[in-house]
Structures are given as structure tokens and as C-alpha cells.
User: What shape does this take?
Amino acid sequence: MMRATKDSGFEWIGEIPTSWKLYKGKYMFTQRNLRGNAIELQLLSPTQKYGVVPQSVYEDRSGMNAVKLNENANLSALKTIHKGDFCISLRSFQGGFEYSEYEGVVSPAYQVFYPVVKVARGYYKYLFKESGFIEKMNSYTMTLRDGKNIAFADFGNTYIPCPPVDEQQRIADFLDAKCAEIDALTADIQTQIDTLEQYKRAVITETVTKGLNPDAEMKDSGIEWVGNMPSSWCVLKGKYLFAQRSLRGNSIELQLLSPTQKFGVIPQTLYEELSGMNAVKLNEKADLSLLKTIHQGDFCISLRSFQGGFEYSKYEGVVSPAYQVFYPTVEIADGYYKYLFKEQGFIEKMNSYTMTLRDGKNIAFSDFGNTYIPYPPLQEQAEIAAYLNRKCDQIDILIAKKQQQLTMLDEYKKSLIFEHVTGKKEVPAL
Assistant: This one.
């Protein structure tokens, strides 16, 4: 038997059971203004993916460094957060409110709040991460120089569902169990993707440094990251194979391209389509005559940061002056160096030249120019490139299928949360 429902009056919520109430956030939650000290309490990191967790936990799970406090930071300004509290950022709003399973302190950049009425906190943990709620909160934000701002008052004046407390708990328990199952499946598929990507990197490394003939006579390359290589190959400094391209262009005449680690050098429109993100646009006052021309088959590296190899261009166009463009000055097989320059050993070698700057790492073309790299016979270059094109395409197809599975699981999880936190589906009482 279907439950009786009523119109909530709010588009992002839709119909709700007649037994449910709607209250403004400020009548259910209030801000916590206690100040703490990182010496006495552990410093927590609010994250979209993991909630509010200790910095060590965040670094362990994400593999990234947490933002550390400045040496001169006023520790007394840190905000205390208790287990079961929520927080939002003063500077940017992107993905719901974060829930804390820990006692500690957070940066003053966050607003901390907690329930003042009896609730099942787990229910609101899910409600505050529901996509409709996030979109509603985003409607309050105003664009700033470096982000979006949301005030607690905006949330305080927003109507949110309030089911009976026992039903809140049933919903939270149900979603805990179902989401745990989905997360386990997601983690397993992600492990499969990681394995495929590792295999792809291994195939590239083995092929660009050892060739395709397992019976080939080998010799020491003299290059640490290459090791032994076929005796028919030689090594040359990069400057004897490539030269910088210094031509300048105009984005009115030539399409503006975006160098990316994942897709290579591609048109900005294609980058936005493939990544789902906005490309960095030129300033209205930018001098278009400074843009650098890049041809099909050219490579480029960033002046400001080096992270993942040199990027290959399949297109004619222009790139930002922040990039160095270079091209082959001898005959090479199209594709071999595209793979060599994305090989992990080569990347690590280039990173060894970089020096830490305030906002990134710098690499000069001269560093690459004085680096020895393999130069196989032209026919072998072509055979290696053709093999890797086929092999990497096969692996990429498998990865794409796994990524599609992740997308489907994510969509299912979102729909599951929405249906239950808004009462579209009922969790029966035991």
C-alpha cells in the first residue's frame, strides 16, 4: 500500500509523506562558536569525499598532502568540532555539508553547526550530500575572486525535511548498509582500473626501452632509467633530435589549444567535452600576438609546472605563452616519442631537474636538450608506435568499460539516497 503524500512546495524535494514535517534549518541546527587549540585537539580536514577526518587519515586515503597551518597561525582561532557536527566552508561551496565522526578542531574558514532538536544525525548526513540539496545551496552562492561564498544564514532560512525520528534512523541505517555495499563494489572496480593502468604503464616502459623482439641482442644504454636496450639502438641528447618552435600566432586565425596530461594537446572545446570541466580562458586584455604556434606532431611542456611528461599535439593551433613548444629536427616515426615522453622513468628524470618555486616547478627546454634518450632505427620506431597504439587502445577500452560501471554505481547511489531522504521510497519498520 502506497503512503499518502503531499507537495513539499520545493522543487528539489518534491512530494513527501504526509507524516513528514518541513522546518527551516535554523530551527533545527545552530552554529558552534567554541574555539580550540591544535595542541590540545587534533586538527581535522573537511573533505567532500571522506567527510571531516584527521589530516593523517585524509593523507592516507587520498595520497595527497593536507593543507597545513601556517607557522604563524593563531591556534586559538581554530574552531572546535564535535562528533556528529557538520561544517561548511566560508570561502567555497562545492558538494554539500561535511559530517564529522571525530572530535577536534578545524580552520576558522569553516562554519561549524549542530542539531538543537532530537534528530538521527545519520539521516542528515545523507540529506546534506543529496544533489538536489547541494544545488539549492549553490543557488545562494555568489561568485568571488577565488570561489563561492555561502553563509549559515542561507541554510538557516532553507526548509528541509524532518521525518519522525524513528524513521530518520531507519533511513540512515538502510543507507549505511546499501551505500557500504555500493562503495565496496566501487572500490573493487577502481582496483581493477588501477591494475589496468599499471599494466599499461608497464607495457609502454617495456616496449619503448626494450623493443618488440625478445631475442634481440642487448647492451647497456648508459641511461639509468632505460637500462639495457637493443644493441642496434643508439642514444642521443634531446637537442639533437628536437628544437624549440618560436613562432607566434593569433587565436583569431588559429584555434586555441589546451595542453592536458590526460588527452594531450587538444582544442579547448574538445577538452571541455571530454573532461566536463571549463578550460582556462584567455584574459580579455591578453596580447594574442604572444600566443605560441603549435603544429600537428609537435610537443609542449609547461614553464610553470612539470607533472606528467610532455604533451603531444594532433592539432594545428596556438597555446599559451606559458608553454614551450618543440618539434623533431630529424626523421622520426610519429608516435614513438609520444609514448616515450609519457614513460614513468622519463618523467622522473625530468622531475630531477625541476626546482621548487612558490607556485609550481620549473623545467627548461635546455634540461631536456641535454638529456640522453633512445633513438631506435626508424622502422623499429614505427613498429613500436603501431604496437602500442593497438595495445593501449585495447587496455583503454577495458578501462572505459570499468569507468562506465563506476558511473552507473554512482548514479544508482545518488538515486537511492534521493528516493529515501525525500520519502519517495519507504524503509519499512522492523
Observations:
- The radius of gyration is 27 Å.
- The domain at 234-375 is CATH 3.90.220.20 (Adenine-n6-DNA-methyltransferase TaqI; Chain A, domain 2).
